[in-house]
Amino acid sequence: MNQEFNNLPDETGHFGRYGGNFASETLFHCLEALNAAYKKLKTDADFQQQFKQDLADFVGRPSPLYYAERLTKQQQGAHIWLKREDLNHTGAHKINNTVGQILLAKAMGKKRIIAETGAGQHGVATATVAARMGLECIVYMGAVDIERQAINVFRMKLLGAEVRSVDSGSKTLKDALNEAMRDWVAHVDDTFYIIGTVAGPAPYPEMVRDFNAVIGREVRQQSMDKIGRLPDALVACVGGGSNAMGLFYPFIQDKEVAMYGVEAGGQGLETGRHAASINAGKVGVLHGNRTYVMSDEAGQVIETHSISAGLDYPGVGPEHAYLNDSGRAKYVTINDDEALAAFHTLTKTEGIMPALESAHAIAYGMKLAKSLSPEQHIVVNLSGRGDKDVHTVADIEGVSV
Amino acid sequence: MNQLLTETLSNLNHKKALIPFITAGYPDPKMTLPIMHCLVENGADVIELGMPFSDPMADGPVIQKASEQAIKQGTGLKQTLQMVYEFRQTNQTTPIVLMGYLNPIESMGYEVFVEQAARAGVNAVLLVDSPPEESADIQTHLKAHNMQQIYLVAPTTSAQRKQLICDVAAGFIYYVALKGVTGAADLNTDAVNHAVKALKATTQLPVAVGFGVKDADSAVAVAREADAVVIGSALIKIIDAAADNVESVLQQVGEFMRPIRAALDSL
Predict the structure, then answer these.
(1) Please, are residues B58 and B84 in contact by the beta-carbon 8 Å criterion?
(2) Cα–Cα distance, A309 to B101 (Å, whole number)
(3) Please, what's the b/e burial string for B22-47 (b: 16 or more CB within 10 A of its CB; e: otherwise)?
């Protein structure tokens, strides 16, 4: 393998054939301004210092790299380490990105923040930083998701955000994203759009990755401190793919470190009810970038399914599409029932309740550990905590709480 | 009919071109053909035919809803091309611009799409999420079949980008009259005319104005400097409001179109 991975995207926002700026002309002005501001602040020492400070004092970083001793013993294979993003403020990795983007919004003088959300985690993370900065915040959310995630909707409202219900299309995350884009086009002058994943038109995939790359940088350092070397493999769940990209990116040149992205297999790839864009989608254009897209024969984007709302997205970040095709990372699937079992296993074995998204990574991490030798080490990104999913799990298991 | 769009727009004799937009397959697939002919009978110079897409990011609620209904009733890219083919059996003179988004075309493949569109009788395409920077591939195929690619210019488009767009565009330049999505309100007609005038100094191509044009008054107001006016959401609303039969839809469409045509001709 002789590709260079760490200088992507190229100047035009492409990761090989993926990514790019497949945006309406009405959005170009916003994207150009954002791109210019980001390129400038990316290397600005004061901005980076402020970001670092906020990650430390507001988010609570660094998050620990935890040795899952009992889980390791149970699998009888490689050592399993968990990157504890669940311990961040607001309970997931999502806050890394919103802390970064809100600083950018401030620097650009924007007064109004918009965001899309599916499960509500990114909406909460956005409402949180908007509250801290005293900025107006509007979160677009599909009507179906509002119904499913009532607690997060209330959390956003408590934080002072306005949650706008989206009734078009499948009334889920992808439609919320469309609606946020429409808002942005109509309010270009004063509005900053905080996208929650490594998708969207350039520079979002790059920017969201960079703000989350603190995860991988910490893991590198922590691995050296605790293992004395880099881990043999990294495992992270992939919906849009921001936690995975954040973990993978700082290791991208370390070819001896294997990378596994875990997609939502839903009820099984063969049923068609899943959200595995890389494993079962085809190359297309959605939300401003070329990537793998879940679409039907006619090229219409289809509804996806996953037990975890955060993985329920019909596209995937373009850099993942690139890493897949180049062979640098491998993308696998974990079904709903396997994720649910892993949710219980981790909870009972380590006393850590993972988000259902992260439970996909745990499930694959356990399989992988079993197949490796006891001298090897794997790091699984525990991207979020499971409190938000307690109701979902209770519902599935017929328990009324 | 290779240069039909260019010929049509250059033979207007100072008349303003009227370009109605409808979504293919809306309100049902059987009505599209009669509506297209009705538009021509009532003064359409060019027809912009929307290829329904599940995620029409640049469109407002009216066109999005029409797209959803069309998809639900089985109209996709293939069916849209078939409708153009059928239209061409009796009309070889009205240019057709296909408007839509890339994903269905990526799914079909650029080469197959362009070949089939050319065979059906499509003259140009307007692909909302295919800006000049991302169009090189499809342009190669379009040029091979003598089809034109139309691009949008927005009020926020920089001077540099305007030049870039005008350099690659063909057929006409579509000026977006407002900051927002299709069908939004609040047209500032003075600003539009000013911008169109400036745009016409940059390009030899005709300039059409759309987004937010809804009736004879607004059409006339934005047509002062422009060569053509596009009306979409307002027309879809008329179709939506009409009773659920062909006669009623065609009658309403005719009544909607005639005063706009007359007003543009009085300029």
Answers:
(1) no
(2) 27
(3) bbbbbbbbebbbebbbbbbebbbbbb
Amino acid present at B50: G
Residues 6+ apart with CB under 8 A from A71: A80, A345, A346, A349, A350, A366
Smallest CA–CA distance from B181 into chain A, residue: A182
* Tens-place pLDDT, residues B132-168: 999 999 999 999 999 999 999 999 999 999 999 999 9
pLDDT of residue A216 exceeding 90: yes
Convert the pLDDT of each residue in A218-266 to its tens digit.
Answer: 999 999 999 999 999 999 999 999 999 999 999 999 999 999 999 999 9
* Residue of chain A whose alpha carbon sits nearest to that of B59: A182
Chain A residues within an 8 Å CB radius of B128: 24
Domain residues for the domain of B36 are: 4-265
- What whole-number distance in Å separates Cα of residue A260 and Cα of residue A282? 20
The string of pLDDT tens digits covering residues B75-124 is 999 999 999 999 999 999 999 999 999 999 999 999 999 999 999 999 99
Cα separation of A62 and A56, whole Å?
Answer: 7
CATH code for position B72:
3.20.20.70
| Cα distance between residue A284 and residue A287, in whole Å | 10
pTM recorded for the entire structure: 0.96
ipTM field = 0.94
Q: How far apart are CA B199 and CA B201, in angstroms?
A: 5
**Total tally of structural domains belonging to chain B:** 1
What one-letter code names the amino acid at A144?
Answer: V
Q: Which residues touch A318 (CB under 8 Å, ≥6 apart)?
A: A9, A14, A15, A18, A19, A20, A198, A199, A205, A289, A290, A291
Flag if B131 and A29 touch (Cβ within 8 Å). Answer: no
Spatial CB neighbours of B130, under 8 Å, sequence gap ≥ 6: A22, B102, B138, B149
